[in-house]
Recover the amino acids of this structure.
DNA sequence: CGAGGTGTTGAGATTTGTCAACCTACGTGG
DNA sequence: CCACGTAGGTTGACAAATCTCAACACCTCG
């Protein structure tokens, strides 16, 4: 069973998406084909609780109907399945409906870097824009559902709906800024500061989504956290233990409770 | 005198821009005001040698004229001047015509991180899109000229010229991908590998622009390189010396010659 | 119930940072 | 045009942070 459901701090807020057909046969693990004109009638951005972070966020009601035409289909992605891989042809931007993803980047020398973790409402695949193929891989860390938004449709609607055009630019810029934040994290912060920042960020994003920000289950391994933070898994593990010892958090494997968020925040401000 | 001109490897290829008025009085160091309709008649993307990396890159000839309307004005930025600062109202995306910039990001705790170096043809300010203000600061590392492209105009033209819309998305995505590359650099590479990657990258970009890729003058200090690479300036300095000792490069202060590019590339591939 | 993936912890090695001294180059102003 | 001041660069000795290797514990899933 999905470990999320064993954590009482997660509400079942996303029930609507439970109607998605989940028979194995309908699971499409490579980019969907796009029979022009077809689309899932179940998708209604106007009723989606995740709209604020998603592409439709902040759009005036009168434009929403147009934008809903973009959402071609939902797609179920099982744990460890790849939503897309680096090098796959770029067709869609995806919005996470439920679940949790990592994106990672490999280089020719065998290095592997986790470039982000994505939860409900967040967008995946924007790096594929313009070049024809995705530059990193998106992998589900738990069974997940996504909305697939074909770029060909986004382009067309964006030309006709300025609010969407503007919004698209905003989410692209947000991704650029996110990158800059990680550069600061990796370039200017100690291991301790990085992990504190990571936990605080995770906590905030969970809270925004109506989950508990103080008690949650990590969806990723120590190794994945380490890759993301530029640390070895042992260092991450030791820091979890140290934070626990110092009364900042409770940890037991993937279950984390933040006991003293102020204390974590103080770790980020050693200067002054 | 500008140190670039003392380096014979730099051609004077960008002569046309030398006509820009450079009396102190015309130097505008804050974002230009935008008297609607006005624009510099000297700007002709069609004739610009930097078009390939710039916003107008790859556009069909018939669309270029429309796009040229976007370029509102050139602006001269003196060494150490700020093209924009984090928090300034976002109005324009800038293309570097001549010169060299760094972008850097400060946080509330006084950390400071260089997020990029930008040379001719490269674009600055895209992180300001959507949020109304720039998120980082752009500082000229030598006297520079930029093209200012007001976002309000870009938006309008992009709606009417699909090729520009597509191109805009592509350059935004390119910036996202650049960020991912730096994450890999900072998260997965040793100090030695980072500096080697930095030099190789610089060399490639200079070569693309018709400069020498093997002999060049660094525009930034060791401290700025260090910030960008997540290293201390002493470490950067030691590595330069070590590369010199190993016969990979010649260094004397800011003057660098790459002697053995293959050797540098080998440093990036220690695995195998 | 066993296997394999994941997490923890220790000891010691290595890399990188810190502090300090000194050197070099460049721009400014006399 | 030179002298000086200052920012930037180099190098050494040492300290500290992080990694490596290794052993073992835990947990989940089949």
């Amino acid at each position: 069973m999905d470990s999320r459901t064993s954590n009482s701090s997660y509400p079942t807020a996303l029930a609507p998406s439970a109607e998605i057909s989940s028979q194995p046969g309908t699971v499409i693990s490579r980019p969907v084909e796009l029979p022009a004109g077809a689309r899932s009638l179940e998708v209604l951005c106007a009723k989606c609780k995740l709209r604020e972070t998603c592409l439709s966020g902040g759009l005036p009601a009168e434009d929403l109907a147009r934008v809903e035409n973009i959402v071609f289909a939902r797609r179920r992605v099982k744990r460890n399945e790849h939503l897309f891989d680096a090098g796959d042809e770029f067709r869609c931007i995806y919005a996470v409906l439920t679940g949790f993803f990592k994106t990672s980047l490999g280089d020719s020398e065998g290095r592997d870097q986790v470039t982000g973790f994505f939860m409900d409402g967040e967008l995946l695949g924007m790096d594929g824009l313009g070049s024809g193929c995705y530059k990193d891989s998106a992998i589900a860390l738990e069974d997940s559902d996504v909305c697939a938004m074909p770029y060909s449709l986004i382009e067309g609607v964006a030309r006709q709906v300025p609010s969407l055009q503007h919004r698209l630019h905003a989410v692209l810029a947000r991704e650029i800024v996110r990158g800059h934040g990680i550069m600061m994290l990796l370039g200017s912060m100690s291991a301790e500061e990085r992990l504190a920042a990571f936990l605080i960020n995770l906590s905030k994003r969970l809270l925004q989504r109506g989950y508990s920000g103080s008690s949650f289950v990590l969806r990723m391994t120590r190794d994945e956290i380490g890759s993301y933070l530029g640390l070895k898994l042992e260092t991450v593990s030791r820091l979890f233990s140290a934070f626990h010892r110092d009364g900042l958090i409770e940890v037991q494997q993937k279950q984390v409770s933040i006991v003293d968020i102020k204390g974590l925040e103080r770790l980020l401000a050693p200067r002054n």
In short: Residues 1-41 of chain A have pLDDT under 50 and may be disordered. The longest strand of chain A covers residues 112-119. The CA atoms of residues 52 and 58 of chain A lie 6 Å apart.
